[in-house]
Design goal:
- With 184 residues, this protein is α/β, with parallel strands linked by helices.
- The protein is built from three helices and ten strands; from the N terminus they run E-E-H-E-H-E-E-E-H-E-E-E-E.
- It is 20% helix and 30% strand.
- The strands form two sheets. It has a six-stranded mixed beta sheet with strand order 5-4-3-6-7-8, with helices on both faces. Strands 1-2-10-9 form a four-stranded antiparallel beta sheet.
- The two termini are 31 Å apart.
- The structure holds inosinic acid and magnesium ion.
Length: 184
């Protein structure tokens, strides 16, 4: 079977069209993995993925990383089933690893308003890592209101709702191999 990558997809009565193809995504992630491998050489970084959305991006990114590294996850409350942020962040799962003195790389699917990442950076810094870097697959610069640290960005995108490659709409669509834009 091929990867799940239709041109158009309908979820909950909304139509989404391909915006970034599988090849474009993989090519960019390969570049990011290569860059991280160089910059974190001899640092044995620990990647912390933000569940649920970042799981596919992180899985692909780590396979382009060619230095010793570790992985752990945390989980924050999400949008619920809406397309706009609730404006509140809650912890649903904590980091299990001891990250004090470690080189931490936080991995997000998307930075929208920046609220979640700002919350995460403050939270992780309190655990006294040796360094903290932020990687996001997507960034919506026009939507970002919070002054947030972003060290590596896969793609800057317009302020529109996107789906696929880990990102959901009402929990569906994460299994799409490409990134889709809402047809408004
Ligand atoms: P922020 O706190 O407003 O930056 O939102 C971050 C979180 O909202 C991300 O981790 C995603 O889970 C979710 N999110 C933001 N924009 C989108 C989108 O366009 N599609 C799907 N999820 C999104
Ligand atoms: Mg997320």
């Amino acid at each position: 079977m091929d990867l799940y990558q239709p041109e158009v997809v309908n979820i909950n009565g909304e139509t989404f069209r391909v915006y970034l193809t599988h090849e474009e995504i993989q090519q960019r992630i390969k570049q990011m993995g290569t860059q991280l491998s160089q910059e974190f050489k001899d640092k044995k970084p620990i990647f912390i993925g933000v569940l649920n959305g970042a799981y596919i991006f992180l899985a692909d990114l780590m396979r382009y990383v060619t230095i010793p590294c570790e992985v752990d996850f945390l989980k924050l409350s999400s949008y619920g089933d809406e397309k706009v942020s609730s404006g509140e962040v809650h912890d649903l799962k904590e980091i299990d690893a001891d990250i004090k003195g470690r080189h931490v790389i936080l991995v997000e699917d998307i930075i929208d308003t920046g609220l979640s990442m700002k919350y995460l950076v403050d939270k992780v810094k309190r655990k006294e890592p040796a360094s903290l870097s932020v990687v996001t697959m997507l960034h919506k610069p026009e939507a970002t209101q919070h002054n947030v640290q972003i060290d590596y960005t896969g793609f800057k995108i317009p302020n529109l709702f996107v789906l696929g490659y880990g990102l959901d709409f009402a929990q569906e669509g994460r299994n799409l191999a490409q990134i889709y834009l809402l047809d408004e």
